[in-house]
Amino acid sequence: MKNTTSENLASQERRLAAKTQDQRMINEIVGGTGMSPWEAIVIVDVIRDVYFDTPGNAPLRHGQMLYTCVKTEAGAGVPLKECPMASVVLTPIDPDDNQISGAENIRRHRIGRLCEEAREQGGLLTQEDLALLLFCDARTIRRDIRKLKEQDIHIPTRGQQKDIGPTLTHKGVAIRHWLEGKEPQEVARTINHSLRAVERYLNHFARIIYCLGHGFCRIQTAFAIGISSATVNAYVGIYEEYKHKEGFKMRFKELECIGAAHYESGDAKKGALLANEKLSDSSQKGARTA
After folding, report:
1. Torsions phi, psi for 176 (to 5 deg)
2. Angle between the 246-262 and 170-179 helix axes, to the nearest 10 degrees?
C-alpha cells in the first residue's frame, strides 16, 4: 500500500524532530534517570523557559543563528553603510513551523518571527535581509508583507518601523483577537501562527499584567518572565489600550489564573531576586562614596 502525501510529511517531521537539541536532552534524561519520556519533556520545557527565553542572553539553540542588522535608533534616511549595527539572535527554523500548512504561510510566519526577534534585541531587518535569510527574492518578501498588512499585521522592518505600534505586530494582533472573543485555536488560524506560539503570547501577556499589578517594575517583570524589556513595553501598550474595554473584563479571570499560577511557582522569587541584587548594588555604591 502506498503512503499518502500527508503520511510522508508527518514522517519527515518526526525524523526532523528527532534530530533537535530538545530531543537529544529528552533522550539523555530518559536514559540517565529512568524518567518517562513525558517527564523528560516537562523538564526540557522548564529548562528552556529558565535559560533560553531571553533573546541574546543564552547559547544558540537548534535552528538559531547570529545575525548583524541595523540598530533601531538608526535614522530612516541614513545610508546603510553609515548606520550603527546590532548583533541579534534569530530563529529561521523553529519546531512550531511544522504546525503551519503551506509554504507561503510558513514563510510569512517566519518573516514575522524574525522581524520581532530582531526588534526585541534592538535591531531592524530590511527586506533584503529577509530575502537572504529565507532564500527568496525581495519581491517575494514585499508581496508577503503586503498580504500580512491586509490581515492588519504590520511587519517591523526598517522601512516600516516608525508606523508600527505594539498592537500591530503578530503578538499584538494575536492578543487583540483573543481579547475580542476568539479562542487560541481560532487566533492561530486567523494569523497563520502555531497554537503553541499563540498560547505563549497569551501566557506572557497574563504574567506581565499580574507581575506589574503586584508591584514589580518593568525590568523586574522582564527578568522574572525571561523576556526582553521591549516585549514588556509592547504588552503594556496593549494593556493600556484594552484595560477599560469589555473584552478585557471578560478575560480578566483567565489572565488572573495564568498570572497567579506562574507568580506563585517562580515569577515572584525571580523578581524579588533582581530587587535584592539592585538593593545590594546600591548599598555597595553608597559604601564606596561614603
Report:
1. -60, -45
2. 110
Maximum CA pair distance of the chain?
Answer: 83
Closest to 22 measured CA to CA, from 54, 53, 51, 47: 47
Task: Say if CB 148 and CB 173 are below 8 A apart.
Answer: no
Burial class (CB in 10 A: 0-12, 13-18, 19+), 124: buried
Looking up cell 499580574, which residue turns up?
A: 210
In 3D space, the residue among 129, 193, 117 whose CA is nearest the CA of residue 159 turns out to be 129
How many Å apart are CA 168 and CA 182, to the nearest integer?
Answer: 17
Burial class (CB in 10 A: 0-12, 13-18, 19+), 288: exposed
Spatial distance between the Cα atoms of 290 and 282, rounded to a whole number of angstroms? 12
Q: Is 52 helix (H, G, I), strand (E, B) or coil?
A: coil
SS3 sequence, 164-191? CCHHHCHHHHHHHHHHCCCCHHHHHHHC
Q: What is the pLDDT at residue 121?
A: 86
pLDDT digits (tens, 9 = 90+) for 83-126: 999 999 999 999 888 888 899 999 999 999 999 889 888 899 99
**Residue 56 φ then ψ, to 5°:** 85, -10
Torsion of CA 85, 238, 147, 197, to 10 degrees: 80
